[in-house]
UniProtKB/TrEMBL annotation:
Lineage: Eukaryota, Metazoa, Porifera, Hexactinellida, Hexasterophora
Pfam families noted in UniProt: NPL4 (PF05021), UN_NPL4 (PF11543), zf-NPL4 (PF05020)
InterPro entries referenced in this protein's UniProt entry, alphabetically: MPN, Npl4, NPL4_C, Npl4_Ub-like_dom, NPL4_Zn-bd_put, Ubiquitin-like_domsf, Znf_RanBP2, Znf_RanBP2_sf
Similarity comment: family membership: Belongs to the NPL4 family.
Domain RanBP2-type: 628-657
Domain MPN: 275-411
The protein, known as: Nuclear protein localization protein 4-like protein isoform X1
Database matches in CDD domains: MPN_NPL4, Ubl_AtNPL4_like
Organism for this UniProt entry: Oopsacas minuta
GO molecular function: ubiquitin binding; ubiquitin protein ligase binding; zinc ion binding
Length: 657
């Protein structure tokens, strides 16, 4: 946020605490300690190690008979699969190892939902015909050109799979001034360029400062070995466990188990090259909270990753909606609270075919001049504070980028950070960022903390009796000389990657069913402090005001769909996946069939009809209800609560009539 208060506190678990998962087999029960933020793949790896199952296949069940097997995507968090502290799982060894390479033809014809990836010879989940989750080992040698296996790359994002199959070459036209051949010929002056060609990147308008991630992979594979030995490894700042040549730290250390001295360098690539909002109103409604209350705000970006043609082999994050979690907002800080409905939001996003792609926050301060804001973030202050960078790194660690070239199956992250701030013209502007993979590793291993007296600086921890922290250096240029300095303190912009942020103009708006961007959208969740309420009265008033022939435009609202999962008027949650599928596919017939045939929705329509007839002689089918001066009830203009005619103030929010 501001330079003095970018205090992004969080009551949510950051993954530092450990939970205990009990795993029982024929020989007994063993307890596995693991972070609650760990993935299903992380737990399977630990199970294989604890029970010494290097080659055997096995199943994981939640009952002793093995009838209810646990099956989940490897990148899913344990909390999303219902694995919490004290969970008891049952392990059953099913046989020897299976060489999946013998079944490649079968895998090619299998449904993607029936397969799960193998991570560098580790665990794999395969949903067999008997509906059991079978975990079996498989090995491969990372190589960029060679196909590793359908299993290894199964859960890579679709955009990654598509870009990996493209050449990425930059076509050039024949230049008559230097090309001496005919129109169908080709020479060195007009031959296609590689996507990482430095001359092309520098001459691009505007210049491309960072390679796209897939251009970076092509660069690694462009040497004499053609990527034969390409393998992406994450940095580790921890001691290697299990060294037997000396006592454990702090009583002993050696070069074999210590991570050694680390010199940071600027990252030349980024995983996302553009953040694009589907509709400008998505951001306008998010900023409206600051305009109304003067307090800052945090939200999660939901959308999808797509190809971006602005840079070679580029990827963009398209934002379709912003979800605002529970938080305590002030003029210079935001404190995130535990969100009991986070799993509901994730399920809704999954039904709609979208995912959490980033987070957004405001750092705005009104200027004395009307309509202007202060310009606080620039090269002479900071772009992101150390606390914000650490928070961004935590988010990126929780949302890793699955990659078949990485030894652990994941490398970096596509999760983006967007800051809404004032620019040099004192106007509101959005800027996008990511932190480097090195910053992610420093935060993951608890080596980086913010400086107390300088928000733009971080600090590498000192070693203690409980934790060994290696020396971390960075290179910088002073008076045209490159020097190496220790990261105490460490300038955070050294690990920042800037990402352009855009929204289409009004004549370029994407067609189809938008999840937000309507003229009369439903109130946003968790805005009670701004007197914007989501309740049954709000729902009925909102639906009553909508034309009956505009059902699709009304229902295709992310915030309305979220409230429908929590309303107690009727239990709509079991019926929402079908509706969301129709919205996702933009299938008008499917959406209207759902409306006409769903009994739970007819209950809500009946509530709307009764309320509308009470407030106005006209029915809901004849148009929106009117509120004559002699009406028995009046609707609050702030929270839309219906009050009796004798009340001069709203019984819900206190606003005067």
């Amino acid at each position: 946020m501001s330079s003095s208060a970018s205090r992004l506190k969080s009551h949510c678990k950051t993954g530092g605490e450990l939970i205990i998962v009990r795993v029982r087999n024929d020989t007994g029960t063993k307890r596995i300690q693991i972070k609650p933020s760990a993935s299903w793949a992380d737990l399977l790896l630990q199970i294989r190690a604890v029970f010494s199952l290097p080659n055997e296949t096995f199943t994981i069940s939640i009952d002793p008979k093995g009838e209810s097997n646990v099956a989940g995507e490897l990148h899913k968090l344990l909390s999303q699969l219902g694995v919490v502290n004290g969970t008891l799982l049952y392990l059953k060894v099913t046989g020897g190892s299976v060489d999946m390479r013998e079944n490649e033809n079968e895998m090619d014809s299998a449904s993607p939902m029936e397969l799960s990836p193998t991570l560098n010879g580790e665990t794999m989940i395969s949903k067999q015909q008997n509906s059991q989750a079978v975990i079996s080992p498989q090995t491969y040698k990372p190589a960029y050109i060679r196909s590793l296996s359908l299993k290894a790359s199964l859960f890579e994002d679709n955009v990654d799979k598509k870009l990996a199959s493209e050449s990425g070459l930059i076509a050039r036209q024949r230049d008559p001034s230097v090309c001496q051949h005919g129109a169908r010929g080709q020479c060195i002056n007009c031959a296609p360029l590689e996507p990482y060609n430095q001359t092309y990147l520098e001459s691009h308008d505007p210049p491309i400062r960072h390679l796209s991630f897939h251009s970076y992979l092509r660069k690694l594979a462009g040497g004499a070995d053609k990527g034969k030995f390409v393998s992406l490894e994450d940095l580790s700042f921890k001691l290697k466990p299990g060294c037997t040549e000396h006592p454990s730290w702090p009583n002993g250390i050696c070069s074999k188990c210590s991570p050694g001295v680390v010199t940071l360098k600027r990252q030349e690539y980024r995983h996302v090259d553009l953040v694009q909002f589907q509709d400008p109103s998505i951001v306008d409604r998010f900023i409206s909270y600051w305009r109304t209350t003067g307090s800052q705000r945090i939200g999660y970006l939901y959308g999808q990753y797509e190809e971006y043609n602005g840079v070679p082999l580029g990827i963009k994050a398209t934002v379709l909606a912003i979800y605002e979690p529970p938080q305590i907002s002030t003029r210079d800080s935001v404190e995130l609270l535990e969100d009991s409905r986070e799993s509901v939001v994730e399920s809704l996003a999954d039904w709609l075919g979208i995912r959490r792609v980033g987070w957004i926050f405001t750092d705005l301060e009104a200027s004395l001049e009307s309509g202007k804001v202060h310009y606080k973030r620039h090269m002479h202050t900071f772009f992101l504070s150390a606390e914000e960078c650490i928070m961004a790194a935590n988010f990126q660690n929780k949302h890793p980028n699955l990659c078949k070239l990485a030894s652990m199956g994941k490398f970096g992250s596509k999760f983006v950070t967007v800051c809404v701030e004032g620019n040099q013209d004192n106007e509101i502007e959005m800027r996008g960022y990511q932190v480097s993979n090195q910053c992610m590793a420093l935060v993951r291993d608890d080596c980086l903390v913010p400086c107390l007296d300088a928000s733009e600086l971080g600090y590498i921890r000192e070693s203690t009796s409980k934790q060994y922290v290696p020396d971390v250096y960075y290179k910088t240029t002073i008076q045209k000389r490159e020097i190496t300095l220790i990261g105490k303190p460490l300038p955070m912009d050294f690990m920042l990657l800037d990402i352009p942020v855009s929204a289409p103009m009004s004549d370029q708006l994407q067609q189809g069913m938008k999840l937000l961007g309507r003229a009369d959208p439903f109130p946003i969740e968790n805005r009670e402090s701004a007197r914007q309420l989501q309740n049954n009265n709000t729902l009925i008033a909102h639906l009553s005001a909508q034309p009956p022939n505009q059902f699709i435009g009304t229902i295709a609202d992310f915030h309305l769909l979220f409230f429908l999962t929590t309303t107690d008027l009727t239990d709509l949650t079991p019926h929402l996946p079908e509706l969301c599928d129709g919205i996702r596919r933009e299938n008008v017939v499917q959406v209207y069939n759902w409306k006409e045939s769903n009994p739970a929705w007819r209950t809500i329509e009946e509530c709307v009809r009764i309320t509308s007839e009470t407030l106005s002689p006209r029915s809901m089918q004849q148009g929106p209800p009117t509120y004559p001066s002699g009406s028995v009830l009046w609707s609050c203009k702030e929270c839309t609560f219906f009050n009796s005619s004798g009340d001069q103030t709203c019984s819900m929010c206190g606003t005067r009539k």
